[in-house]
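Progress against Task 2.4 (sequence-to-structure conversion) is shown through the following example record, which the project officer requested during the mid-term review.
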Amino acid sequence: MIKYDLPDADVRLYEALFSKQESDRLYENLIKYIEWEQDQIKMFGKTIDLPRLTAWYGDPGCNYTYSGINMKPKAWNTDLQFIKDRIEKTSATSFNSCLLNYYRTGRDSMSWHQDNEKELGKNPIIGSVSFGATRPFQLKHIILDRKKTDIPLTHGSYLVMKGTTQHFWKHKIPKTAKNIQARINLTFRIIKE
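Structure tokens generated for the chain above:
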């Protein structure tokens, strides 16, 4: 486990929480069996496709809204439950929901944002699992402009962000022109009542 020395944050990386064999199987199953959706958002008066596919899974009643998109959870499947059980033991945290992102090519991305929606409560814990191509996860402090870091999220890795991280840090997955394979990211969350 790597604990990053970042001000106002608690960020930890488990580089190979899932074995290569487990990661390969889960990656293929998630592509095949998750009910992926192409969500849209409004920007500057235009409706555009999000630059990735998404899906929302969780316990009944764990509804979630971000960027004007209202999501109702689909029921956990066997693979998601397997992943959830492993990360909950590792980080001693019980998650009740998961936002999945499918980055099909290097052009798919996520812009700067914080996971600080009201449904997540104060000091949310985010558990982020990655399968597929390695992509850089970039973090930047919202006050200390020069304080940035890149964390490579590899096949089978598990990143945990907790404490005041979402108050002081933004994060993103940048676009790349490189010809890279697809990546699936699962961000486990706790929706508050």
